[in-house]
Amino acid sequence: MIKTNDLEKLLELAAKSADQAEIFALGEDFTTLGMENSELKSASSSLLSGVSLRVVKNGRIGMSYSRSLSDPRTLLNMALGALGGGSEFPCRFPCALFRKSPKTHDSGISKLTAAKMAAEGVRVCKALKDAGGQVNVDGIEAGTSTIRVLNSSGADLAARSSAYWLSASVLMPGSYSSVGTLTLGRNFVKTPDASLKRIKWLYKAAQRIARPPSGRIKVLFLPETMYALMWRLSSALSAKNVFHKQSPLADRLGQKVFSQMLSIYDDPLDDSGPGARGFDDEGTVCKKLALVERGAVKNFFSDLYYAHKLEMKPTGHGYRTTMFEGDALALKPVPAARHLNMKPGSSSFDDMIAKMDRGVIVCGMLGAHSGNIVNGDFSVGLSPGIYVENGEPAGGIKDALITGNIYETLKNVVAVEDSACRVRGGVFPAVLVDGISLSARG
Predict the structure, then answer these.
(1) Is pLDDT at 324 greater than 70 in this prediction?
(2) Spelled out in words, what is the top-level CATH class assigned to the domain 4-193?
(3) Cα–Cα distances in Å, from 65 out to 8, 103, 263, 301?
(4) Which of 120, 180, 305, 385 is the most buried (most CB within 10 A)?
(5) Is the pTM of this model over 0.85?
(6) Domains of the chain by residue range
(7) 93 C-beta neighbours (distance < 10 Å), count
(8) Helices 114-129 and 193-205, interaxial angle, to 10°?
């Protein structure tokens, strides 16, 4: 991490040359392992740090970034030089104060060795071996990250976070698709036996090839695949897309749009897993925010800029992120819901399978980014999918596509699982919906 004194000196220097200044500093220290066919394939470590500077002058904003602060004057001049091509910024950086910070760091992460991580990978591989396919631990990673936000309004916020994750899968024969699970924690977490049991059940259920007819059917989205739907919903709830009149929800605040079984919120303060935040990347205090409550649209989420445009209070959702991976230091903050949660329902997983007279379990997807994201359209390949008939698995599906729109799909919810799982993108239960179009070859 760049030294505290160097950051404070840069802020002082920038504040003398601009009307406002903001510094975002980031440090990361992670160890990553990979295993293939139950054997250790790769091991690496990374140690990164850097700083991003934003300056505001005459109502316009400029930005620059660097991996070091050896030449702060050049970094400042680059940010000032970017003002000419920068956008308007009629906002004030916040003087953020928060009473209680979520628990973001577990000191035990520093004692977690690569040997212990590898041993857990071996255990998971052995537990999945009797499924019958090639077992891959796609990644095991552990480490810490540090964020600091300082600005000329007086904010000086810092957070240190720890994270551990393990991703495991069983490769389907004759293909590159797989069924898998993800374990996440602030420190080492043993992959639950229940998760491994579900992988083996799904894998065995997909061994026989099924050839269902095309048409409208019921579809069960597992927690690991719910991101395809939530991606589209969160895009529509973003203040950016609301302001630009791209969101179908722009004029539907307070209206019931989805099934009353759905209640969705964003909770950056939830520290039961990794990634909790007390403030966003602009220094705005974070809070739990209801987005959909029993099917009704409750709130939009915003950063500083789009909150100003919509004449609303910023909700603490200004993050340096993008649709795909990128260098956070090089990105400007945009509205993003990074801590989505869906409230569990009342149906067990077995009950949901039993409700499927003719349907598909979505275990994995290809092309989740395809279609008009903001408009809610999706068209994804099953990778893999399991066909269910009369409440019983009938086999795996090859060369099949499901298409729909979330504004229809999330109205026709049949059941929501009674437990939720922490996966990439949030904490979700499995959700069973009706009326999705299946296109299957043969």
Answers:
(1) no
(2) alpha beta
(3) 16, 29, 39, 26
(4) 385
(5) yes
(6) 4-193, 207-228+344-440, 249-342
(7) 22
(8) 40
